[in-house]
Design a protein that fits this description.
Elements (H helix, E strand, L loop, with lengths): L2 H8 L1 H17 L6 E5 L5 H8 L3 E5 L14 H6 L6 E3 L14 E7 L10 H11 E12 L1 H10 L19 E6 L3 E7 L4
Parallel strand pairs: 1-2, 1-4, 2-3, 4-5
Antiparallel strand pairs: 5-7, 6-7
Bound molecules: S-adenosylmethionine (SAM).
The site of S-adenosylmethionine (SAM) has 23 residues, from helix 3.
Length: about 190
Amino acid sequence: MDINAIGTLLGPRFEVVAGDTAKALEALALAPGARVLDVGTGSGHNAIVLAALGFDVVTGEPADDRSMYAGREWSENARKAGVRERIRFEPFDASAMPFESEAFDAVFLFGMLHHAPEERRPAVMSEALRVVKQAGAVVVCEPGAEVLKMVRVDDPGHPEAANPADYLVAEQVREQRLQGKWMEIYLFRKPGA
Ligand SMILES: C[S@@+](CC[C@H](N)C(=O)[O-])C[C@H]1O[C@@H](n2cnc3c(N)ncnc32)[C@H](O)[C@@H]1O
């Protein structure tokens, strides 16, 4: 099923994710079948987009997250979209990831960083950079003003968007910023990549 057909099936929130993730992917030019980590499963939309575009996806969130954004039913949507077998779910906390260094071609944090407690965000960024390959990239998508307005209708206490550059500690990275339709997109590459 192509991405537009999946959008028709899963609705406008999926299309918000699909458009801005596609924009980030254009800049990355990953090889087909690349291994991608999706940090913060949520509704599974970003994992489904990545799988539908032909990548091999690992996704996860903390097993003890009881917020309205975690523990959601995403697996059935992935099955309906025909991509369930291309997504592996593993619970984890992004500030201490259970993955080898340089295990992924790209790491996505789509709408996730601002949900991590402020004091853990430096470790989240360090871990994302640790598990991505030397030639890969970490992609952080954080909500723009319109998205925040929409999500605060159901969740008035929703946190402000985070600027991932504020949480880089000792990392040497090249940063590129793209304006998504809905999200602010930040790409971080290791030097020499
Ligand atoms: C708004 S949802 C993300 C949206 C999701 N990417 C999608 O495509 O639907 C926020 C996610 O961040 C996850 N999250 C919050 N803190 C986390 C942490 N420390 N480690 C990993 N995931 C975390 C939540 O469990 C939730 O899955």
